[in-house]
Design a protein that fits this description.
The protein is mainly α and about 180 residues long. It has helices at about 5-15, 15-20, 25-40, 45-55, 60-75, 80-100, 105-125, 135-155, 160-175. Helix 2 crosses helix 3 and helix 3 crosses helix 4. The radius of gyration is 20 Å and the shape is flat.
Length: about 180
């Protein structure tokens, strides 16, 4: 997929389970589910699935929600927990860094953080240049995504917080 990040962001609002799978080790399974259940074509390539999603109509959005519900049920039936897989992936990356004492993740994290704030300071002080504004905006977006990944690596994701908020909201809804 050439526009994988864009597809994941889009699907995150319509089909969050499929989007989570696309962003992790279950990407192939998610593409197969989209090809079969959304497009009705078993074995469609990831590029064909991408084009189908990018060209989705309003009616297709309802179908994507249905695909997401079926995909979530299939994963649950198979005993696959996407967040547990993602958490294990982060834990293994952290364990690798501790075990090998590799300085590369720290150096990359520092470069991303310094780069993000340096570009942000430049834009704040000088504004977006007329000629290269779109390129600089893309750079800021990429650095912001990298900053998010750095924070998730070192401090964990906010999934637990989201789950807590959902439980509290459910309790308030039940008490009302």
């Amino acid at each position: 997929m050439k526009n994988k990040d864009k597809i994941i962001r889009f699907l995150g609002t319509v089909a969050p389970t499929v989007a989570a799978a696309l962003g992790g080790p279950m990407a192939g399974v998610a593409v197969d589910a989209l090809a079969t259940q959304f497009m009705g074509r078993q074995g469609a390539s990831s590029d064909e699935v991408e084009q189908a999603i990018l060209g989705a109509s309003a009616a297709d959005l309802a179908k994507l929600k249905q695909v997401d519900a079926e995909f979530a049920a299939q994963l649950q039936a198979a005993g696959i927990e996407l967040e547990r897989i993602a958490a294990d992936d982060r834990a293994s990356a952290r364990a690798r860094q501790v075990q090998t004492k590799d300085r590369t993740p720290g150096i990359l994290a520092a470069v991303v953080i310094v780069g993000f704030f340096a570009v942000l300071a430049y834009v704040t002080l000088n504004g977006l240049p007329v000629d290269s504004g779109p390129v600089l905006a893309l750079l800021i977006g990429s650095l912001a995504t990298g900053l998010s990944q750095v924070l998730n690596f070192y401090f964990g994701s906010s999934v637990g917080s989201k789950n807590k908020d959902a439980v509290i909201a459910g309790m308030k809804g039940g008490a009302a």
